[in-house]
Amino acid sequence: MKITGFLNPACIRVPLHATTKVAAITELVDLLNANGRLTDRDVVLQAVLQREATRSTGIGQGLAVPHGKCAGCAALTMAVGKPPRPLDFGSSDGRPCELVVLLVSPVDEMGPHIQALARVSRLWLTESFRNEVADAWTAEALYEVFERHEE
After folding, report:
1. Is residue 3 within 8 Å of 120, Cβ to Cβ?
2. For all residues of the chain together, what is the average pLDDT?
3. Within a 10 A sphere around the Cβ of 132, how many other Cβ atoms?
4. pLDDT of residue 92
5. pTM of the entire predicted model
6. Which of 4, 37, 106, 127 has the fewest CB within 10 Å, making it most exposed?
């Protein structure tokens, strides 16, 4: 599975304007909606915030992957945001998030949803990927980082 297969460059925000976890999730949902990737923005936002309320999606090492499955989208899609300053996502390691990757998918796409979560997590484990993300200060540059690491 290639992330660039379902990540549209227009759905990357650098810098992310939000300064809180909820605002970051809302901003990324709105970015997906503005780019025609959602069928119901409010359903998606509710699903992602509901999932976040059960357990933080700040997975550690500076990465947060808020996600949800719902009827508000027709296919697996992703938005990425890089805040100018790390955001507190309540990560288990206590480290604030330097990259926020929002994943949403229809309820019946469990396999692709889990594969996408795993793929993002594996990429983040790669030190060179994290370093290149840190150096990417435009949406285009960040998209190119994903492209390079999927070759």
Report:
1. yes
2. 95
3. 17
4. 87
5. 0.96
6. 127
CATH superfamily of 3-149: Mannitol-specific EII; Chain A (3.40.930.10)
Whether the upstream peptide bond of residue 9 has omega within 30° of 0, thus cis, is no
Both tokens assigned to 108: 């019946």
Query: Cβ(65)–Cβ(99) under 8 Å?
Result: no
Q: Is 126 exposed, middle or buried (0-12, 13-18, 19+ CB in 10 A)?
A: exposed
The string of pLDDT tens digits covering residues 74-85 is 999 999 999 999
Task: Retrieve residue 16's tokens.
Answer: 């992310």
Q: Indicate the domain borders of the chain.
A: 3-149
pLDDT digits (tens, 9 = 90+) for 96-132: 999 999 999 999 988 989 999 999 999 999 999 999 9
The number of C-alpha atoms within 13 Å of 8 and in the hemisphere containing its C-beta is: 14
Cα(60)–Cα(63) distance, integer angstroms: 6
